[in-house]
Amino acid sequence: MPVFYWTLKALLSHWRRHPVQFFSVLTGLWLATSLLTGVQALNSQARESYAKASQMIGGDPQKILVSPNGANFSQDLFVTLRRAGWPVSPALRGRVTLKEAPEQRLTVLGIEPVSLPVNTALAGQSLDTAQIVDFFTPPGTTWISPQTLAALGLHEGQQPVTDSGKVLPPLRAKTDMAPGVLLMDIGFAQQLLNQPDQISRLVLPKDFADNAPALPAELNGELVLRKSGEDNDLGRLTESFHLNLDALGFLSFVVGLFIVHAAIGLALEQRRGLLRNLRACGVSARGLMVSLVVELGVLALLGGIAGVISGYWLASALLPDVAASLRGLYGAEVAGHLNLSVWWWLSGLGVSLLGAFLAGASSLLRAARLPLLALANAQAWHETHSKWLRRQGWVAGISALIAISAALFGDSLALGFVLMASLLLSAALGLPVLLNLLLDALLGRSRSVLGQWFLADCRQQLPALSLALMALLLAMAANIGAGSMTSGFRQTFTHWLEQRLSAELYINPQNPAQAAPLQQWLSQQPLTSAVLPNWQVSLQLKGWPAELYGVIDHPHYRQHWPLLESASGDAWKQLAQEDTLMLSEQLARRLDVSVGDEVKLPAPDGPWPLRVVGIYADYGNPKGHVLVNAEHLLKHWPQLTPNRFNLRIDPRAIPQLLRVLHNKFTIDDNRIVDQIQLKAWSQQVFERTFAATAALNSLTLMVAGVALFISLLTQSQSRLAQLAPLWALGVTRQQLMLLNLAQTWLLAVLTLVLAIPLGLLLAWCLDAVINVQAFGWRLPLQVFPMQLVRLTLLAMLATLLASAWPLYRLYRTRPADLLRTFANEG
Amino acid sequence: MKVKALPLITVRLQIVALLMLGLLLSACDDKPEEEKGFAGLADDASSYAQVTPGKRFEFPDDHGPHADFRIEWWYVTANLKDADGQSFGVQWTLFRNALPRAKGLQGDGAGWSNRNLWMGHAAVTSQDEHFAAERYARGGVQQAGVTLAPFAAWIDDWSFTSQSASDDPLADIQLQASGPQFNYRLRLKATKPLVLQGKQGFSQKSEQGQASYYYSQPFFQADGSIEIDGKTYQVSGPAWLDREWSSQPLTDNQTGWDWFSLHLGDGAEVMLYRMRQKDGEPYLTGTWINADGSTEQLAAADIALAPEDTTDVEGRDMPTRWSVKIPSKAVDIAVEALNPQAWMNLQIPYWEGPVTISGSHEGVGYLEMTGY
């Protein structure tokens, strides 16, 4: 035990003399752990929210009956089914905005607790009778998650008011409520949403639905049984979003481990003499290894603790943006407050330990093999470097081969990530090889002595700096790739939005009965050039949620509905006259169909085969989108009424039209949307979606900067031996400093130059592989030169900042220190 | 009589939606005398109408719901036999419970704000099987209710619906219910008049004055089919309808009751019940119904009622064989459960099942026991 104690103490004394190395190891572990755990916290928070949403009633995702187009329907159908012996329970869903918090839309879920099967849990809690009676007896109760309650700045017992002036039942916080949902009795919900006697779904007990009974004949076509609830789809729809976050977190983890690897390697190199002395003093190889492992473990624990704490902080900081993205893109509500289990904290520490041993494994291995009596030879490592380089070159080549085959044969998101990972790995490992070759080539051409020294010394520094340069390369490439993808997407999306959102006004009738008179009235209005009714049916195609739209034959679509691919001849004419359909790009990919293929839609009267005549872009829509001619649609769904009217109207006539519309028909404001509103909303969703990505991206660049800084700092000490002879030959310290800066910059610039093509390749991967696999749409690759310049300058600035402190130290080195290096040589 | 829902609350705190009122109104228990003084004050919207002697029953109006009273039921039992002589019992019950009115509100409230809660119980019993089911519904949306013209009482797909073309809606009734392992459809016909229980329909439940309005149709003849576990039986036999409504819960002192409806072989019918008290003698009363429908009230002194044998039912000691003596009518009979395990394992559990009569008279009937 004393041996172990003194060994450990001797080993640890190194860190006291080299605090910078100590902090580099900690920083590496800290960065690696914090980004990965932060991203994981975000994902687990989101997934927990989805689970809560789908388990709010009865604990399990429910089987439900809905109208074919998802519209509300009469409560009479509930009574009809109950009186036919169906144990259904009604629910009404809608959205409200509170006067107290006008910026947040909340989901109102009205349920009927008495007709739910006995002992059904609501938000994880079985209600006793007193609670059930309380729930629906005026003034009733509004259940809300504590997080949402806090986010709204409201407190329990309060009765907030909706923007249309309706008063909510008193609020009550319930832990297991899904975020953003107000749960109340259906009676209050109907009043609040201005939907008297309307319901939006009927919940079926699982065991009853599993027997798949046939609907009473009179209801056939009016209701459809949905195999899985909408909430249940959230997990699938958002899968790729979370996978992207995971990938970013993992990238940062790898970059962080690079730092750890570099710092630990250096520490070992510098402690060779110490290790040899300890062995010579009688410490067994095994005892030494145990001490080193314990040392690494303690470091990992410290870094891990710092990492999970800042990971938590990072996740809390990003959560609002992520939640906004998920809400905008998928309509998914995610609690705005982190709620993490002990397991998360422990797994964060585990990740840090694992990372530390991964990064330190090679160093430990080398320490174990340390020959007892070998002379301390600081150059030994450098001499074997060329062998290392060759080996690294091989791995880089193999990675490149994997990348190429993944690009050629990959057809899944996982393989897409394999492609990206192997591409990045091959580039990172290939970087020192390439730089070495480049410097060799330059060296051959250099005539001046100082120039030759400059390049040769540059090459000498390469092994120590290569890991930091790799980090810089990866961070820069990731930034170029993601930046180019985001900007390209923005441009494509905006252009597409301009074209697609061409109608000036979108009106959703309040109820089916209103559709016909509304259509007639709208088409009689002056300055209205077209009324385009839409019929809508919600379907599942190969298990994927999709919306089927019936449209009329109108020239408007030819002008404003761009097609990516279309059948030969007039596709729109074929859509109007034949059993044909058009579908969104992502749905076409999901179903694996192209123009000319046949798609069978599940109509109430059996499968309906249709030929694909067009494929169009539908960016940002997680659900599938299908267009068919309305007349054909109504043959299969005869009870449908239009659920939306797109209006082409002179913008000046809109205020007048809205005034008269409000007087003549009762339509809630949120059922009338104008183009400007819709565009602004779509843009906002877009911006929020990439806010989190952009933030994480800048963080990776920061990590790379830190890596570079630490590498430069750790090697500045050992550089003195190389610089002292030059100083002795008459080069001033200022010149030395500038030379050093130029060397660092040369390496950085070369790295950045290589990062540009790599970044563009990465952008291509994101546009043409990851996007296609994750979201179903392909984006054209666009290069933004100004963005490249800006990023390069930013990276150069990072390099300058990273090298500033080590250079300053060099500049302030006393001549005595420089002289001492000669003394040591003696 | 079957005031079943009420005392259970105080007895074992087995709370179900319907019974909430028991708790909400528990204050009334303490001051029954004062309550009487305020009985029927319609201007106090939160209170219920009170049961007082001297009510004149009006038919068919009184078949319908009495919205001002707190609790009410339509209760049918039938003793049936198939062609092979196998005996069955069938129960069908619809309870209406009115929650207290919100302050300042009149009437029952429309749509989902209706203050009535409905509960249905149904069961079939054979010698060795017993299945029970329950249903719950809120008033105001037609999921459950009772209408007068045409007369119908229903909850979900369970119904008690008049098929009568005459003035008397109860002359011809279609009765149906189903559960996971059973269903039945019966046609109920009655030619004899209704019977008012207690004092002209005023039925007292305790010495303190707790009471209900109570009438019966004990002369139904039922015909139809029962399906148990996939097997169908064609059956017929006597059936009994009880109608009762009240606003007063029973006293804390009362722990449960034993209630009998008996079809004696000679055409006479007997209804009797005893309310068990924590301290002291049970409150015992009944009605003798002659074959022509004329009645005589039976006082405690006229009846000798005693458990003779018990059975272990769901861990409870239930008296499933009774001795009933009514000396003035020369009745000395043993009343024994057809199936001693006729336990209604529902949100409010109790024992209810068909009985057979032997001794001075032969016959069949129904027994209900609560609070064990």
List low-confidence stretches of chain B. 1-46
The chain-level structural class of chain B is mainly beta
Give the topology string of chain B: H per helix, E per strand: HHHHEEEEEEEEEEEEEEEEEEEEEEE
Q: Name the helicity range of chain A.
A: 55-70%
Amino- and carboxy-terminal Cα gap of chain A: 38 Å
Overall SS class of chain A: alpha+beta
Please state the overall shape of chain B, judged from the principal axes of the Cα atoms: globular
Strand content of chain B: over 45%
Q: How many structural domains can be distinguished in the coordinates of chain B?
A: 1
The fraction of residues assigned to DSSP E strands of chain A is 5-15%
Write down the CATH class of chain B: Mainly Beta
CATH architecture of chain B, please? Beta Barrel
> Averaged pLDDT of chain B, please?
84
- The value of Rg of chain B in angstroms is 19 Å
Bulk shape of chain A: elongated
Q: Percentage of helical residues of chain B? A: under 10%
Domain AttH (chain B): 71-247
Protein name (chain B): Iron ABC transporter permease
InterPro entries (chain B): AttH-like_dom_sf, AttH_dom
Transmembrane segments (chain A): 247-268, 288-315, 342-365, 393-410, 416-443, 464-482, 690-713, 745-770, 790-811
Can you describe what's shown?
The complex is a heterodimer of chains A (826) and B (372). Chain A has 826 residues and is α+β, with helices and mostly antiparallel strands. Chain A is built from 26 helices and 22 strands. Among the domains of chain A are: 1-61 and 247-375, no CATH class; 62-228, no CATH class; 510-666, no CATH class. In chain A, a hairpin with a 2-residue loop joins strand 5 (121-122) and strand 6. The radius of gyration of chain A is 33 Å and the shape is elongated. By secondary structure, chain B is mostly beta strands. Chain B contains four helices and 23 strands. In chain B, strands 1, 2, 3, 4, 5, 6, 7, 8, 9, 10, 11, 12 and 13 form a 13-stranded antiparallel sheet that branches. In chain B, strand 14 and strand 15 (269-277) form a beta hairpin.
